[in-house]
Write a structure and sequence with these properties.
single chain; 125 residues; alpha+beta; 3 helices; 3 strands
Length: 125
């Protein structure tokens, strides 16, 4: 069922892609106003290797998150979510240490102000 949903999404995307649903370069999977320069450092810092390949997938939750939130990186204080605003930091693919061993989990979006922390996890398919 998920494979059928992926194939339908690929067909409707209008993007040229390979047999796995991946575009040639990340910028082809980004909406107008979102550039690789805005997000590359965040995704390279994360643990999931999104920048190396996953963000190129038409069905990528990393691309969905970047396309939704990256434009707010330069004006994060103006972002309003859950009725809250005044954020000081917006990080994509943010490492969140737990104090346990192993690879730290990553949140797709981490928003922070002095008093508020919001984590967002996104799934496209």
């Amino acid at each position: 069922m998920i494979e059928q949903a992926k194939a339908a999404l690929w067909g409707k995307s209008g993007l040229s892609h390979d047999a796995r649903g991946y575009v040639a370069v990340a910028r082809l999977n980004l909406v107008a106003g979102v550039t690789p320069e805005m997000i590359e450092a965040d995704y390279c810092h994360g643990s999931g290797q999104e920048w190396l390949s996953k963000i190129r997938a038409i069905h990528s939750s990393a691309a969905l998150t970047a396309n939704t939130f990256a434009r707010w990186k330069t004006e994060v204080a103006k972002l309003k979510i859950l009725g809250l605003s005044g954020f000081e930091k917006l990080e994509l693919e943010a490492k969140c240490p737990t104090g346990f061993g192993g690879t730290h989990p990553n949140l797709d979006v981490l928003l922070q102000s002095k008093d508020i922390v919001i984590g967002i996890e996104s799934k496209l398919l």
